[in-house]
Amino acid sequence: MSSFALHSSLYVRTAYININDLNVFYKNSFSSNSQNNYFEVDKLDEVIKELSEVPVLVLNELGISKFTINFLNAVLMKILENRYKNNKTTLVSSYQPIDKLSKKLVNNETDNLFLETCFNKFLFILDNLCTQKEALKW
């Protein structure tokens, strides 16, 4: 968690996270060699809650690594949906154009219909987050 100055005395709580690091954290939370599995899952829930509630969130590197459907649904979609519902400012950066993300974002999955549904929902939320116009008040 970090803060940055918008104006001389105005600060906004901000979180910056590389989405790929979040994916690794998610995978490690469920690793079979973890002795404290419940503790790790609790930490994951705390991270999801914090990233959902922080006033400004910067998600970096979307499309660099491929994710599982489980990660998209259980983590990324949950964060984005919560932020969308609560009108939180969300910045997402990617080196990929949005129409190429489906091939770059998800590992090959057997259930293509589920994958398509999940990805369409992801794009809908992402598109709505991007089109929300909220001016910063100085």
TrEMBL record:
<protein>
    <recommendedName>
        <fullName>IstB-like ATP-binding protein domain-containing protein</fullName>
    </recommendedName>
</protein>
<dbReference type="InterPro" id="IPR027417">
    <property type="entry name" value="P-loop_NTPase"/>
</dbReference>
